[in-house]
Queue: 3 jobs
Job 1
Amino acid sequence: MDFNDTPEEAAFRAEVRAWLAENAAEYAGADFEPWPEDELPARARAWLRRRAEGGYATISWPKEQGGRGGTRMHEMIYAEEEEKYHVPYGGGAIGRGVNMALPAIRKHGSAEQYERFAGPTLCGELLWCQLFSEPGAGSDLAGLRTRAVKDGDRWIVNGQKVWSSGAHYADWGILMARTDPKVPKHRGISFFLLDMRTPGIDVRPIRQINGNSEFNEVFLTDVAIPDDCRVGALGEGWQVAMTVLMNERAGAGDSSDSFVRKLIERARRSPRDNGTALDNDALRNRLAHWYAEEQGLKYFGYRLMTSLSRGEPPPASAAMVKLVSATKLQQTNAQAMDIDDFAGLFISPERPDQEAIFQDYLWSAVMRIAGGADEILRNQLAERMLGLPGEIRVDKDIPFDQLVG
Amino acid sequence: MNFDLSDEQKMLKAQAARLLGARSTPNHLRALVDGGAEWDADLWREVAQMGLLGAAIPEAHGGLGLGETELCVIAEEMGRVTAAIPFFSSICLAAEAIRLAGTEAQKTRWLPKLACGETIGTFAWTEGPGPASTRRLGASLADGRLSGLKWPVPDAGVAQICVVAAQTAGRPALALVELDQPGVARARLEGFDQVRPHHRLDFGAAVAEPMGEGDASAFLERLYDRAATYAAWEQIGGAEACLEAAKAYTLERRTFGRQVASYQAVKHNLANLLVLIELARSNAYFAAWALESDPAQAPLAAATARLSATRAYEQGARENLQLHGGIGFTWAADCHFHYRRARLLALALGGEEVWSERLVTRLETAA
């Protein structure tokens, strides 16, 4: 066992470090505060362009497709190094094009489509949003109702999408819509590329519980999409979407700093009648268990990296990273408030990080839902890792238009 | 990044698993318990012949001179089958203590015999209720004589030597004692885990050799950190066996016209167990790595591995029995071996109370 790069990986890392040192600082923010919404898209476009020029846009793809001909391990190394700079990347719609839209087009689309979208997407000219979930189709995504009806060589789309982050500044969207309601739900969906400037699109920000509006509702009224913007065969949109969602879930470990150490510091500074909050054995016991979870996730991430380094696909067990970390985020941030008792619910000069505690506690609630809810992830672990039977799906073979409710 | 066992370590693990899986079957364990046996002497001989006992003992002292990780993978396979042999007592405690704190003469005399299984060793620290402590040591060592009461002591019925934590003039010290002598009385305790016997040792001015020099406190802590790492691997082996057993049974058993494993309550239960095991295994890898490569990180890593492994094994043992339904409560089903062993491994070396406190104390001093 060792934590070292192979000589080849080390050489790549050195190359990446040198390139980032030369290029990233100019695009990076001074601190790790979130980027202001109105500045983010323009800054992201500029950074994506520089990154593409440097040859780091899609490291593991073949050179003739705009990639670098590298490995997934190279991508991981690049991501680790890039993370050290606060570049305007990740989150919202910024990574959607490179990480989701293009992989779908590359795998399921036509050569013309790839030719048309690859260059502009890789260099940040096009930012993408995802138009998948609906008010009535979340975990059961295949129950979506947005309808696309053929009209000559185009499709007319009507429906409502939700949780589309960055839809208010995205140029294009990847859209799932029902093209055939006469067949069972998974088989009647097609996958489209939608120009967000098309008439009939109404993007409305969602007012979230944390006071922000990262997510949007998108209303589609008689929106026309040319048939050459359909990806994959008619009715095979589900398979295309799975490619995309696997990418979304392939994220590796949790390498953040130990939050338990911060809790220890906080407890040490919260008074009790005879000493501090840190003297409480019940708290110490919980801290110990969270620390074990934290470290377990960190070293589990190292094990995932090891399989990547060997060129193996990410194991299905990777789903447990979000499952464990989201709940831990919720519990530990609640604990951070508990430590100060009543005062823990208020902003004060004694606790400069209190706002972050509130925000993380609120955010943890959506972390347990987005990108695979806890319950869905447990099903996946049970089915894919342990080989247990799939869920009973009573609507699996029934034509969509005969489903009730 | 190569955070995995080496091919050689995987081969060793597979080799150990084959032997133990074939010999230490649940039916065999049932027969041993029903016959009142102290241990599985035949398996001990085979394990010794395979070289598993001497894996981490230096070649100069009759072992194979492999690393701590090799000991870890063997411990995992022992845990998987709840083997009825004093591997942990003799190798992970006694041999480790002698290797790390013994005099040259003690090492030369005992390590080769421990490595080939001819001699069995054990380790005695606790003296009744309450966790092991260097501040409450009643047993005393003076002028080469040891007196006092130690219990519980694992495998002391079959052991010939015992490393004993005692005090000399009020300071913690270690003694090496041969058990076959008039000054030692052994009595088997009625223990919760029927497969691994524990004893009460009554030392009455028994002949004893001092081990190590000066205050033994730091050494005892170090020894327990090492042992906790080995125990974590043993616990993970047990936890994984529970997961496998629960999976196999719920896939086979049908209720209300469906496989039991098809119910979401069951699937989520097993998914949660899988997560606990994967986290524990990741921590156990790091603890093994730290023992070999970065001793400064070993104490915190050991406490971390220990806590997550205890949690995984306890949950595995309980949920495995639960998912077997009523059959799980029968002697004929195999769940009880892990149900009892998980409790033993959770408390031997100190329970959750002890290790979570050690973990946080170490974090506090490190922060």
Job 2
Amino acid sequence: MPAPQLGTPCSHCGLAVPPALLASEGNPSFCCSGCATAHEILRTNGLAQYYAFRERRLTAVRSSGRSFEEFDHPAFAELYVQAEGEGRATTELYLEGVHCASCVWLVERVPLLMPGVVRAELDVRRALARVEWDPRRLPLSQVARTLDQLGYTPHPFRGVARDAMRRHEDRAMLARIGVAGAIAGNVMLPALALYSGEFAGMEAAYTGFFRWVSLALTIPALLFPGRVFFTGAMAALRTRRLHMDLPIALALGAGFVRGAINTIADTGPIYFDGVTILIFLLLTGRFLQQRGQRAAVDAAELLYSLAPDSARVLEADGIERTLPASALLPGMLVRVRAGESFAADGTLVEGETSVNAALLTGESRPVSARIGDVVHAGTLNVAAPVTMRVEEAGTTSRLARLLRQVAESSARRAPVVAYADRLAGWFVATVLVLAAVTFVLWVGRDSAAAWDHAIALLIVTCPCALALATPLAVTVAIGRAARAGIYIKGGDALEQLAHAGHLVLDKTGTVTEGQTTVVTWQGDDAARALVLALEAGSSHPIAEGFRRAWPAGAVLAAESVTHIVGGGIVGRVAGRDVVVGSPRFVALHAPGGAGTVVRGLDASLTPVLVAVDGVVVARAGLGDRIREDAAAALASLRQRGWRTTLLSGDDPAVAASVGAALGFEATEAIGGATPEEKLARVTAWRAAGGPVVMVGDGVNDAAAIAAAHVGIGVLGGAEACLASADAYLTAPGLEPLVRLVTGAERTMRVIRRNMAWALTYNLIGVALAMTGMISPLIAAVMMPISSLTVVLGSWLGRTFEPVAGAAPSGVVPMATLPARAAA
Amino acid sequence: MSVLFVVLPLALLLVAVAVWAYIWSARGGQFDDLDTPAVRMLHDDEE
């Protein structure tokens, strides 16, 4: 999050206000028109107390300014809107830019802004707003426009139906866990009384009473929460596969039946305490794991929400109509204004502009596009309004194909789970064989004892501690990491990051700052004021780079300014002819100064010449600065054995130059990679073995990020990229990456320690049960203690440490990580 | 007869009530979103 800069802060977002926009004394000043609009909405509706929140968004309001007409289209309603009673309707909108307490306040005040809205509820973690409104009083597009003006650009969310189903599932699981926990706790109480009775002696009437009470409590535990294990075991039997549920169901069933027989006969152990605790702990472990695994599904859903969703179609009668992007057909003519994204793939039929494809390819410099050139969905029209003929729309566009690849790669990535399943199979087989062996060994001597020993073994080896060891350690670590400003979606990522592998980094925005600025300036410093005056009104990236580098603002005024697309800018400032542009363009306009062109500018920079009255006076190198901590972070990771590769969509020469500056080997700095090529390379490296970690920030990295073993998104990344990433760093730079790797190593150490404890307990338990040494008392003590060690081990293990300057506790994490497991 | 035979079932009855209340709140969606309400309550004092 950018810190407030010196100078007058914007009255809405707190960023510095450019001098040109400073208001007169006593009036609020704004850094941009977006902030001014948002401030006006809040003020006129009596919501000015928004500014009292200490913890607010410190980013300028960037509204898309769209009309959101397509939100009122019948096709839209059919896909995304659910009808409610009394003529009301609800929909879920995915909001960009939601991340803190003030966002909840603001979004939920929308009904006050617009009387037709009945309710707006925001789930801050997933950035989903549930809006209930009255379509007869107010079109949804108006709600969308207001949210957009406040800086939360809305996108329709497709997962509404699945979301409802999952919520139902979650609630049922929570109810099960609660019941199992309550019963386990209450069975423990008579069990404790019975155990102490064995030592101190107890009247038979009390013993019998406690045993019957335990039996009465265990029956509902098996019937309601415990049923999942029996249905799971049945399914495993039907598909003839060894599943964890099988020995669990066997232990639960055998333990209960044997306990019930013993209760009726009033002799021998009853096992009810073990059975109920088992149900409770296993359900808890399963719930924690399940929450972690949902990330992939959520990611795919969010990606679809982010694809451009409307287009302005030029109809045969010459009228423009806004249609949902899904309604576009090949052959339609679409108008795209400057600053808008293309909604489909197509060819330009009218106009000339430059296109920023950074979203798709990572190329940081805009390319010019003329009539006949192909443009892709998702790329940004930078310079001028154009008309395009649609060639590929909807699911066949390049962007849609890319997003589909992301979804597929996300779904495919589950080798760790598969491994755990195989391991569980072996565990199950071993336990079953051992129980059978125990039974056979004892059945000759005493058939009643044989039953008891076999059941004792099943219960004592039950994988409570094993089942808790990994999810618990991972959940605790993820919670700590979130407090340190690193958001991790699942345990797999931690597991993979703990071992040195192959680290692939995107260039633009990842190892560099991702914004064009003036990196070198040679020549007359006095010319700076002339350049600023000329570029003041331009939205071209080069102009923005100059303004970013010299934020003081223009003091002089320029006249008769002309932009030449793909060349530069010409005008008169303070009575002098000023030309700013590419060397070729300037040479054309200032033939007298060609001699001063100096060669040898770094290949990663765009050369811009400045000519005054026909003489070249200065040369600026504009480019993307390398992040300050990149070199140190990379050195530290290389020292730990990581292989590092720079994989950029930018020009190969640029990639090579940045790679050389950061100590990448020449063969490890790859440029000119399209998103498809990035995906192909990452897949190839994956196949070659060893964990592949992809770090990036753009949609062009999204497929590669999803395909890698671990994908990491960095601060300021595109939402599509963040959605497909396994981890997200909220602090700028690469230093948090080092912290992530360190934390992952420590978490794995905690997990290994947990596993060792759990296995040791199981081995001792098996030995005791097979030799017939295990009394119900020992079993009752060993079970909770083994689980307790694991809980304590996970809790006390040092994994991620909070760092100074990280998000303070209490800040709700970025919503772009939907299914972050709760700590 | 000890008082235990009366008190223990009574205690279990209380547990049953608590469990029922818990299931009711879980099914009603009280535990769906644990992050937002914590933030929301900070803001509800005005209006």
Job 3
Amino acid sequence: MSIFSPQPRGPIYQTEAGKTVFGVLAKFANPGALVHGAEAVRDAGYKRWDTHSPFPVHDMEESMGIKGWLLTPLMYIIGGGALTGFLVAGAMQYWITHVDYEMVVQGKPTDAWESFVPVSFELTVLFTAFSTLIGMLALNGLPRHHHPLFTSDAFLKASDDEFFVSIEASDPAFDPEKTRSLLADAGALSIELVEED
Amino acid sequence: MSAINPDKLTADRLAGLAPRAERERPKDPLGDGTLVEDPALDPPLVLGNPSFGDITNMVASYAEKPIGLWWLIVFLTGANLFGLLQVMLIYLITTGVGVWGLNNQVDWAWDITNFVFWIGIGHAGTLISAILCLFKQNWRTAVNRAAEAMTIFAVICAGIFPGVHVGRVWFAWFLFPIPNYNYIWPNFRSPLLWDVFAVSTYATVSALFWYMGMIPDLATFRDRAVKRIREGVANPFKLEPPLWFPAAPMPSLKLPFTADHVRAFIYGFLSLGWRFSGRHWYRYEKAYLILAGISTPLVLSVHSIVSFDFATSQVPGWHTTIFPPYFVAGAVFGGFAMVLFLLIPLRILMRDFSRLVTLRHLELMAKIILVTGTMVGFAYSMEFFIAWYGGNKFELDVFANNRVKPDIFFKDGAPYWWAYWSMIFCNVVTPQVFWFKKMRQNPAVIWVVALFVTIGMWFERFVIIVTSIHRAWLPGEWHMFFPTPVDILTFVGSCGLFLMLFMLFLKFIPVFAMAELKAVLPQASPHYGHSGGHGGGHGDDHGGDSHDAGQSTVIASADADEKELG
């Protein structure tokens, strides 16, 4: 979930043991089946849900209905990083060379911008790279120490060769019976209840 | 003329059709089936038609199972040479740069040669990961992780030399614009300072790029360890019995946790809680593409700026405008040679390595060696041409009398002629064997050429640096440079550091980009299995599928069948 667009929450469900339900985890056979499952969940109007696959499945963003808008904050962060790097480099070099420590080198004016180009470029790239990685992780809510899905033994195979859809119980559209049948109809091989711990 | 009923004709023709037999791949005596000449057939990127799970098992087995005695031998060799490097550096720092063969005239020699050599080797990794990523060259997935690792290790080796060559290394922090009590700042008009920024940015961005690509694979390692712990089959800490005596009783440590607990902790820490989410993948892929996009000008800028160290000076032989592109081409050339030099032996030494790095990968890289080697050869000749055509007497003199004319034949000829001609032979002549298909498809030949190129690229930097300054201007300033044992052993030690780091990489880090490899398998396409049809409700534009290897094979053979039919 994007930290910038919190979704409304539905009621809280509890298991018979009194544990809070995180949601359901449905396994799908292959990337094609996962795409179908994702489309079914998207079309049913769910918001707090996700797909899990060992590699990025082609065009999954369309099947999940997240194409475009999910990226906008990331692009602002990266653009901001690039601009910051450029301005920091320019200001630093101008201030050092022209204001604080004027030193005539090769008889050139101390505020000649041409020699500032390489360092400005490098710092722009450096800041862009950091903002790309950190922005991507932050918007993804990472690093994160634990997640309820990790309690599922089956879910460990998502990093290997299996494909999952998870729907959170806090989704306003979540209904224990309807959500289960939706996933079953969409071709889920198995459906598992995941508890918060 | 009786009118032919077209429907009946079609019906007759259709009635006689039978499905065509599977097209035979041409047999290749050397090959592993990937060296296919038919452009309609896309060779497999991974041999043996593996499943997703096979890829995970293959790559994870390097880290989870014994790797072999050779690893220990190479690692210990590297580690010992790294120890030698430390001894040499301590000796240098405690004594002074006089322990090197430098003199008043030749004040840059082995140190900067080694620096440029290592930083050049570092260029292939980012080129493979960034530029080939932008060009959608799917074969990069098998070599990018190792090449990026190599980049970072080479930059680490490179960073040592400018750090220690300043003489009083405890002042090396003056290289960075850090406020200090002397109220002085570095000179931003100096290419040497640009170099500091270029190399440190390059090292940092390469490491970020490498790490970002590795997050999902580290998460895979984490999940495998966690899975074994939960299933109660976690691997305990124990030393493996030696290969030559498998019955040897090896001690087993009694600890409250197992090796898999350590794996789960470390890989879990490094994978940042990655859970393979579709939303995460979406941002991740775009972020990766942006990193590739900014790394592309970065990789071109780094060696350009390194070349400014020379090109902006007034020294004949250095002061040329061709240096930036010439250095970049040379860096790519030397970097790919090092990639091939390291990967070809691993195809023999490591399980399943040759299934992932196929002969096609080697051939494609051999072609890059040929192209960049020829570009470097062009640069050598163009440099020489301009030295003559530019009419600068001193420049021509450097080329003719300091480099080309052997002093064994010409009076006042070049004492370093052997360095120049070694460079020409290794860098320009040997790669030309790759014009022949048999040569560039033979791993042994490629390995030998890669070795020559690596040597040749070292000589190139030596020629540029030493021959230009050892006899400049007045004959009274003429001095020869001879390396001391400290010079030589420092370089050998840096090779050891590189080797040691690379061995650690092979053992502890996912050697292949598993997630990327899985994504280029034929069955990774959502349309795999239902030939070209768009099922369900996702009938939008899916025209971009043709870069998917297996998918395009299916489409290509379907197209070919249609042609035969019509």
